[in-house]
Each structure stands twice: as C-alpha cells, then as structure tokens.
Amino acid sequence: MRATGLKPNTDELIGMKVQGITPEYVRSMQAAGFKDLDCDELIGAKVQGVTPEFIEKARKHGFQNLTLDKLIALKHADIL
Amino acid sequence: MNLKRTIGLILGHRGRNPGPWRRLLAANRKAATGPSGARMFREGGVFADGFARRASFSYQFRLAGERFFRLGFFPRPGGRKFILRSRGTQENSNARDFCTTAKGAGLFHFSADPKYQQEMKSLGFERIDGDKQWAMAIHDVSLKFAQDIKAQNLQGLDTDKLIAFKIFTV
Fold first, then answer.
1. Model's pTM, two decimal places?
2. Interchain CB contact of B156 with A (< 8 Å)
3. Is this complex's ipTM strictly greater than 0.85?
4. Which of B50, B51, B78, B104 is exposed most, by the fewest CB atoms within 10 A?
C-alpha cells in the first residue's frame, strides 16, 4: 500500500481492509486521474461505489472537471 | 413417539451405523482416556477443555442435520466460554478433531504463558494483563506477527491494533 504513495496509520489500514481497498484499486483510481486522494477519501469513494469504470462512464457522458464529491453526487443521483 | 423408538434413541442403533448417542459417547470416552484431550495451543497459552480432566465441560453441537445435543459437566472455576468456529464436518470420531473442526461452545480453561508477556514487552507492547493475553491468544497474535507489524513503523500501534489486524487479516 505504501508503494502507491499512501502512508496509512493503523486505523486507516484497518478501515481500508474492511472496505476491500487494495493497492490495485488505489492505482486504478490514480490512473483515472485521482492521484491525491488520501486514505479517508479512498474509503469514501469505495464505500459509495465510485470505481474507475464509473469515472470513465461519467466522462463519456460529458462530465468534466470531476471531483470526488461530484462523482459521489452523481452516484447518488443514479443517473448514469 | 413409541417405546421402541425412544429406547433406540437413548441407546443408539446397533450394527454398522451406530446411533448419534453411541457415537457421541464413544468419542467422549476416547477423548477422556486419551493423552491430551481437546487442547488448542497458542503462543499466549494453552486452551484446554474438561475432557482432559474428565470434568467441567459443557457442549452443544449437532451430529446430523438440525438435531442438537447437549452434554453438561460441572463448570471448572477459571474457565471461559467461547465459540469454536466450524472448519469442517462433525464426523470425526476423535474429540480432539471435533473440537478443532466442529461447531460448539465449550467451557475452556486458559493457561497463560508468562514468557509471552515478557517477550511482547521487549517488542514495546506493554500492559498485557490476563484478559488481553487471552484475547491475543484467541486471535493467534504471535510474537512473529507482532514483530512483522512492528517493523512497518505504523503510527498508533498497540495490542488492540494487533488484535484488530488479525481479525481483519490486514
């Protein structure tokens, strides 16, 4: 996990493990343009079902300048 | 239920397919006379049930389908009740296998290993009382595991976190 650039503490490690956040998920989110997400943001994204596929889908629909909050809002709106 | 069926249930069936009570009693007899009884060894100590001492054991388990059976003995002071997780079937004739592979709740006595506390202290994990050592043994927090996690230089690492890491297989 540290190889992805994250420096999680013990609580964050447990939280990420519980939510199923793997280094692959972190890397895929980074590859999707979200390079500066911290552990809590990654946990939030994973919990809300924000995946690299969802991000790609949002972009294909014309949504630009996406932030994590906007992606979560889109996810909640359930319009994609 | 007629008389014949009742007697059959109590005594078990004779022949190739012994009844559940007969199998149960045979397993208990074997365990009670065996060299070790049901024990679970951990670095923090040893969990031993009453089979080794022919006393202090209560168990609820099923032998077939949804039929539950319960055996009770006098509780032994200092014992602790906990659930043994299922890893297989209950078809073992040996109670030692039964206790490590089947479901059940038993009264076990935990004998703490004093070396464990000292060695954990040398790793920087202090204030391990009896309850904590019991919890660490239950979750199999070994010295090697503690060393490996300690080597990662994580912030906020303590014995509770070690247990949590084990529970969540971090």
1. 0.62
2. yes
3. no
4. B78
